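Feature request disguised as a bug report, sorry. It would help if multi-protein outputs had a clear separator. Right now it looks like this:
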Amino acid sequence: MEPIQLVIDDEHELRILHSMLMEAKFSVSASDTRLGASPFSSNLIAQTLETLLLKQAEQDPSKPQSWSTWLEKKKPWIWERSLAHFLKNPPYRWNEVDLETKCNHVKWALSPYQPTENDLYEFINEYQFYYDEIMQGKEVWLRKLGYATQDMLEQLENKMDAPFPDDYKAFLLQYNGGTPLIHYCTFSIEELREVIPLEVLYGIGLNGRYDLEYQNSFAEDRPSGYIAIGESAGGGKLLLGYTQENQGVYYWSSLHQDDPACEQTLYKLADHFHSFMSSWKRMTKSI
C-alpha cells in the first residue's frame, strides 16, 4: 500500500492549518493529552510553520524575521501553557529519566518555539519545583512572579505610604504575586451572586503591567485608602484596604474605574488577605 500524502501549497490554507495546530497543541482543555508534548505534534507544527515561511518568503524576504519576532512575543504564553500541561500530565517516569530525555520533552512541549539551552534548564527547574510541591501533597494555585526581599517590601511600603497587612507581606515574600497555574481559580461576590476568575496578583520589582508599584503609581486612579493588588479576567481590580475603617480585600468593578470617587461597585470579598486566598475555588476548565 502506497503512503498517502497530504499536500498543502496554498499560503492561506497553511496559515489556517498553523492556527489550528497552535490552538490544539496549547488548548486550555485539550481532549487528547498527547498533543501537548509529543515528537509527532512538535514536528508537525514546526514543519507547517517552516513551509509557511518558505512560501511567504517568496513574496516578502522579511517574513521569516517577522515570524521570529512573533514567536518571541508568544514565548511567555507558550511557556505558561506548556508548564500547565506538564503539571497536569507529567512526562512518564520524569524523575527517573536523564537530562537529555527531559530536554527533549521540553523541546516537544515548547515547539514551534525553539528554546535555548538556558531556556531548557530554566523550564526544567521551574517545572521540578511545582512538581515536587504537588508530590508533597501541597495545593499549587499560582505561578510565582519572581522573588521579593524584605528590603524590597519595606522600600515599597515607604514609597507608597501604605502599611501592608502581615498576611499580605508574607504572601509577597513567598510568591511575589502570581498567575493561575494549573486550573483557573475564582472568587465569589455574594452581593452580585457572581463567580469571578482571577487574572493576576501583582508582584514587586517586575517589568510591565504586573508590577505592584506601577499599578499604584497614581493614587487618584483608585478610591482613597486602598492599594491595587491584582485584577480579574474581566478587568475588575482587586483592592486591599489598609486603613482602620476599610481593612480587607475588595473587588472594584471595571464599570466605575473612570470615577475613583465612586464606591458603588466596591464589594468586600474578605476581612483578611489569607481569608481571600482560602476562599478560592477551582474552575472545571483547566489552563
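(second protein starts here, but nothing in the output says so)
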Amino acid sequence: MTNFQQALLDELRSRAVAPAGEPAPVRRVRPRLALGGVAVGMAAVTAAAVSVVHKGQTPAYAVTNEPDGSVSVTVNRVSSPVEANRKLRDTGNRVVVMPPSAPEDCPVSDRGTVAPDGVTSYIVMPEPNDNIARVYPHKLPPNTLVVVIPSKREPGQPPNAVAIPYLAPGPKCVVDPYAG
C-alpha cells in the first residue's frame, strides 16, 4: 500500500462511525503536516525579520540608561522625538528631547526658565561638538528637568546634543542655542 493509500484509508477510518462498544480509531498525525506547520512558522519569522531590517535604520534619538544611573541621549539627526520622549518618560527620567523652533515661532514667554548655574554639574557633555548628552536625572534638584536640543552642525554630520536644565514645567518650545 502506498503512503497516499494509507493516508486515505486512515482518513476514511477517522470519519467512519465506530460500532457500539468499540473505541473510535485514533487518527495518526503525519510528520509532513508538522513540517508544513514549521515551514509556515519559518515563513512568518522570515517576513518579520525582513520588515525589521527595512525599518532598522538608526533612530533619530537613541536613549540609553547607563549602569551608573545616568541616561545618555544620542542625537543622530533632527526628527520627531516622540519615541525617545516616551522611553525617557516611561523610565522616570526628567529629561526631554525638543527639536529647536525658529525664533519667530517660539515666543520668549514660551521658552521656559533656565535653572540656576549649579544644576549644570549634573549634565556631562563629553566634547563640545559631540552628539551625546549624558544626564544624571536622579541628582537633579526638585522641580528641574533637562531639555536635550539637537543643535545644527556641519552638513553630513549629526547635530550636537545640547543639554540645558530648566525649572519645571520647562519650555513649551526652544530655539537652537548656537544658531547664529
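Even a blank line would do. Unrelated, but nice: The CA atoms of residues 9 and 97 lie 68 Å apart.
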